[in-house]
Amino acid sequence: MAFEELLNDPVIQKYLHELVGPEGMPVAAAPPEGEVTDEELAEELDLELNDVRRALFILYENDLASYRRVRDEDSGWLTYLWTFHYDNIPENLEEEMERLLAALEEREEYERTHEFYLCEVCSIRFEFGDAMDQGFQCPECASPLESMDNDDLVGAMEQRLNTLREELNADIHAEAD
């Protein structure tokens, strides 16, 4: 997929924004073809050099950019030439979705297998054991703790899990085609 197509996708724009933040977004949103130095990017985008370097290193840590070092023979200074690799974005997003799926499955299991109590005054939630330790009274305001029905939360988590599973299967089937 070409840079332009990727960068027009709102999901990918949000992903890049989450990675590099608002200061680094101009760097992420304007990947040049071929190699470029951090100084050239800073000048071209009219950004602080530190903001450009921070964004480049974040992209590097996420396998979306690479660099090679070149030593100036006269001065001995190192120059870093950066190349962008946005073809890795779909794979990175799929890995993020799989991590989200695992975390959500774990949380849904926790919600489903525990009993909770709520202080309706302070909106503090307690597991059964903690509520029992408190004598079923809120430690903040001494109000009674009421049994909490979290079926709606578990149901919403199950719906989100099903959606994620469908999206991941669709991605796997699309890659096989």
Automatic annotation (TrEMBL):
InterPro entries: TF_E_archaea, TFE, TFIIE/TFIIEa_HTH, TFIIE_asu, TFIIEa/SarR/Rpc3_HTH_dom, WH-like_DNA-bd_sf, WH_DNA-bd_sf. The keyword Transcription applies. Keywords: DNA-binding, Transcription, Transcription regulation. Residues 8-90 form the HTH TFE/IIEalpha-type domain. Gene3D superfamilies: Winged helix-like DNA-binding domain superfamily/Winged helix DNA-binding domain. It comes from the Archaea. Transcription factor that plays a role in the activation of archaeal genes transcribed by RNA polymerase. Facilitates transcription initiation by enhancing TATA-box recognition by TATA-box-binding protein (Tbp), and transcription factor B (Tfb) and RNA polymerase recruitment. Not absolutely required for transcription in vitro, but particularly important in cases where Tbp or Tfb function is not optimal. It dynamically alters the nucleic acid-binding properties of RNA polymerases by stabilizing the initiation complex and destabilizing elongation complexes. Monomer. Interaction with RNA polymerase subunits RpoF and RpoE is necessary for Tfe stimulatory transcription activity. Able to interact with Tbp and RNA polymerase in the absence of DNA promoter. Interacts both with the preinitiation and elongation complexes. Belongs to the TFE family. The winged helix domain is involved in binding to DNA in the preinitiation complex. This is Transcription factor E. It comes from Halonotius terrestris. The gene is tfe.
